[in-house]
Amino acid sequence: MGCGQSTIQGEAVIAVMGMTGSGKSSFIQRVSKKQTAAVGHGLQSDTSAVSLHTVHRGNGRVHLVDTPGFDNSRLSDVEVLKLLAFWLSMAYSAGIRIGGIIYMQRITDLRMSGTSLRSLEAFKQLCGPDAFPGITFLTTGWDIPVISRDGHARAAAQQRQAELENTPRCVGDILAGGGAAMALLPGREAALALVDAIIRRRHNLVLRIQVEMTVGSAALGETGAGRTLREAHRRDMARAAELDA
Ligand SMILES: Nc1nc2c(ncn2[C@@H]2O[C@H](COP(=O)(O)OP(=O)(O)OP(=O)(O)O)[C@@H](O)[C@H]2O)c(=O)[nH]1
Ligand SMILES: [Mg+2]
Question: In this protein, which residues make up the domain named G (predicted)?
Fold first, then answer.
C-alpha cells in the first residue's frame, strides 16, 4: 500500500523500543520525514528521553514513541527502565492505550550477547505475555552493502533471523504468544507500510508494567522488568566477587 492510501482512522500510538543503536530513532525519522528523532552516528547512545513523533496517515494520526534503549552509554539500565516506566504509567493513567510495540534489533549482530538477551528479557517482562500479540520484532541493517550485496552474508543473516524466531528465549515465545517478526526493508514506503500494518491490527494494549505501577502501585524494583535487571546485576556482582576469591 503506497503513501496516502492508508485506511487509518483516529489516533494510534506505537512504542518503539530496543537496545541502543538498534535503529529506533532512524526508523522514526524515516517514517516522519522530520529530523525530530535524534539519530546518533557516533559511538555514544543518542536518545536519553522518551519523545513523541506524529505522522498523519489516512484520516488519522500515528504517534511514534521514541525511547532510550537498554545498554545506553549515558544512562544505566535502571535509569532507562525508570524513564520507560514513568512514561508508560503516565500514559496509562491518562487513558492512552498503546496500539502496537516495535522491538528493534540489528541483524548484523552475530551473537545474541548477554546484554541483548538481558534487554529482550527486561522488555518481555515490561510488556507481559498479554501484550505479546501487539509486538513486532523488527530486525534492522538489511540494507548495509555487506548484507544486501553479498549472497553468503545475506544467507547467514537470514539464518540468524530464523534462529531468533525459533528460539523461545529470544523471539520464539513472543511469536508463540501471537506477536510478529520481520525484517525492515529499505526506503520510506516500506517503513510506512509496516506502520500501517501494525495500525490495521492495532490492539488496546495494557502492558504488565502499567498495571504493576498504577493499579498495583508497585515500586519499580518489584516489577517484573525491575526484578530482571536486579537479578542480572546480582549475577554480575557474584561474578565480580569471584575475582577476589
Ligand atoms: N545501514 C543502516 N544503518 C542503520 C539502520 N538503522 C540505524 N542505523 C544506523 O545506526 C546508528 C544508530 O541509529 P539510531 O537510530 O540512532 O539508533 P537508536 O536505536 O535510536 O539508538 P539510541 O538512541 O542510542 O537508543 C546510526 O548511525 C544509524 O544511521 C539501518 O537499518 N541500516
Ligand atoms: Mg535513538
Answer: 14-71
